[in-house]
Amino acid sequence: MAKEKIKIGQEGIYDARKLGTPKMVVLGFQHMFAMFGATVTVPLLTGLSISTTLLFAALGTLLFHCLTKFKVPAFLGSSFAFIGGYLAIAPWIENADGTKTANKELLPYACLGVACAGLLYLVVAALIKIVGVNKIMKLFPPVVTGPIIMAIGLGLAPSAVNNCKTNWWLAIVALALVIIFNIFGKGMVKIIPILLGIIGAYIVAVLVGNVGGVEGFAIDFSGVKEAAWIGNPIEWSSTVFGGVHDKSLAVSAIIAIVPIAIATMMEHIGDISAISATVGKNYISDPGLHRTLLGDGLATTLASLFGAPANTTYGENTGVLALSKVYDPRVVRIAAYFALVFSFCPKFAAVIESIPTAVVGGISFVLYGMISAIGVRNVVEAKVDFSKARNTIIAAVILVVALGLTNGITFSIGSNTITLTALACASIAGIVLNVIFPEKDFNPENAFQSVTESKQINVNENKKKK
């Protein structure tokens, strides 16, 4: 396709080929950076392999795109929702010197449980296909999904602050660079502020810490020097096929972990709603919620079988979509190709891991805030009437539950302990209240149509201003 002359960062770009291949590649690299920090955090907390995680985040994303007709600009990274399940089945081993190491022998059993949880997505996807998405989405009107989207961003906010606390000055540098590039940047600079913010803050840390000797800024490059250039991302003993031998332990792991999928499916609906609201296209109807659930579930099962964490659609990348206004799924697939290649390069993984936590925190300030802002916009553009008591109550309960129950709710069924995340509890509360106090005139198609029409009006107004 011939490259067209367009103005970047003013309206949404749905075909990134207009920007040219080099710019698409840079945009894809930005998406990979956005997901990397959170994606590698899950294996660091559970003991799973970082390289395997990267490989199956890439393969899971590509599988998701295939199953959703290459229409949804979503990246699938590591899910935090299953961390409790991993640690319940494979708790870390405390050594004599007080240090802790991952329980490599039991991790495959936890992975088996997560793989079965992914299969539950397929059952729900089939149910949605049979009964129709509109009947399902009546449970998720904008007054429910809007606050859930807000809660996704606000729930991540403490993580951003905690990361920033490691070095507020460096975090502010990263945040300032993103803001400056996005507001005052021209052309390509305007749509890759995240990537430029990370690189700029990293350079500042090296110059101030490693060169200038200022404590708190220095970066440890020892891991980078020791890491190999090429490595195998899969260890057979860490897979379900090579590590599961005890049938009774396998059954216990499945029973303990599969119920977590109920929570993650609700988060999936919130994430797809957020992407839909960002892009202005109803992905819940086309390609369909059944397809997005199918893609997410199969990606989770595939990853888990080979020793990688569960996959989930990533809010960080939704934040990048909102900030860059480049909505072409091709760009996200480029990010997946990068992750695929770099999963075979331990040295690259070491470089990314060397990025100071404070830099990640400063970048997250923007990304997580953008997610919450999308939720607010979703409610406004859907014209939710908050003069109605039922709407106010539903939104209020969702937000308080999501932000108040920081540790979720834990309960036991027989000998198994199950934990529902705060977001899952909030989603359940919102759905139940919406069923008890239904909006009689609500139509899922009409509600989303009002959102897309509002988005189009904004685009037309911008064109008139030019």
Distance between the termini: 26 Å
What does the overall shape look like? globular
Give the low-pLDDT segments.
Answer: 1-9, 455-466
Sketch the topology as an H/E string, one letter per element: HHEHEEHHHHHHHHHHHEHHHHHEEHH
Subunit organisation of the chains: single chain
Which class best fits the helix and strand makeup?
mainly alpha
Total number of β-strand segments?
6
Mean pLDDT equals 82
What gyration radius follows from the Cα positions, in whole Å? Answer: 22 Å
Mind summarizing the main beta sheet? Answer: 2 strands, antiparallel
Assign a percent range to the helix content: 55-70%
- Helix count equals 21
Strand proportion: under 5%
The side-by-side strand order for the widest beta sheet comes to: 1-4
Account of the protein in words:
The protein has 466 residues and is mostly helical. It has helices spanning 21-46, 50-67, 83-89, 107-131, 133-137, 142-164, 168-184, 188-191, 193-211, 222-226, 240-243, 247-257, 260-279, 284-305, 315-324, 329-342, 346-353, 357-381, 389-404, 422-436, 444-465; strands at residues 76-78, 93-94, 100-101, 311-313, 409-413, 416-420. It has a two-stranded antiparallel sheet with strand order 1-4. The chain has a two-stranded antiparallel ribbon with strand order 2-3. A hairpin with a 2-residue loop joins strand 5 (409-413) and strand 6. The longest helix has 26 residues, at 21-46.
